[in-house]
């Protein structure tokens, strides 16, 4: 069992019968959805929403009931991965391109459990490029404004074309090297016209589960 799978299966233990569950996106969340699917097949009754079309498709394949947003109300728990997490439980997310939907779903969850392997546990954020979702209109102006915040910003490219989110927007990957003040940066980025949202998740995670190569699982609570 790989580290991501270990962390994911530990997180899924928190899901109880009757819960409303948010399903994250990415390579770690994949394992959580797989485990939830196993438990549903064994008789677990839940309702779920997904943070991306890919996660929704996987959930449906596994028999996890997907409920429309206007019918499910507030969620009990969301389980998702992260690209970086520090000791204060500040996250960098968006490597899978679903940061906006993740932020919407996770803001409407009573509890957010983040699952990572030890490579994502950092002292200072910023080694992983910070994803920023940008509307296509006048996007070059927005990209230049992002560069003015002190980063190297480039469009995410997939198959030779600009990557499109499920919302039809672009992702700019912003390399800061270090992010010393994520709270200040989040505000500055979201004030730029054309920016939809950014991959800094602050004061959102309630628990981070970190799987380590030595077999240990560390749990960091808010």
Helix percent reads 25-40%
Mean pLDDT over all positions: 97
Number of helices: 7
What distance separates the N and C termini?
27 Å
Which residues form runs of ≥5 with pLDDT under 50?
A: none
How many strand segments? 15
Shape: globular
Q: Largest beta sheet: what is the strand line-up?
A: 2-1-3-6-14-15
SSE order: HEHEHHEEEHEEHEEEEHEEEE
Query: Helix- and strand-based class?
Result: alpha/beta
Tell me the strand percentage band. 25-35%
> How big is the Rg?
17 Å
Largest sheet: 6 strands, mixed
Function: Catalyzes the reversible conversion of ribose-5-phosphate to ribulose 5-phosphate.
Catalytic activity: aldehydo-D-ribose 5-phosphate = D-ribulose 5-phosphate
GO molecular function: ribose-5-phosphate isomerase activity
Subunit structure: Homodimer.
Structure report:
The chain starts with a helix and ends with a strand. Helix 1 (3-12) packs across helix 2. The protein has 7 helices and 15 strands. It is an alpha/beta fold and 222 residues long. It has helices at 3-12, 27-41, 53-61, 69-72, 99-107, 139-147, 182-190, and strands at 20-23, 47-50, 77-81, 84-85, 91-92, 112-117, 130-134, 152-155, 157-158, 161-162, 170-175, 195-198, 200-201, 207-211, 217-221. The strands form 4 sheets. A 6-stranded mixed β-sheet has the order 2-1-3-6-14-15, sandwiched between helices. It is globular, with a radius of gyration of 17 Å. A hairpin with a 5-residue loop joins strand 4 (84-85) and strand 5. The longest helix is centred in the first third of the chain and has 15 residues, at 27-41.
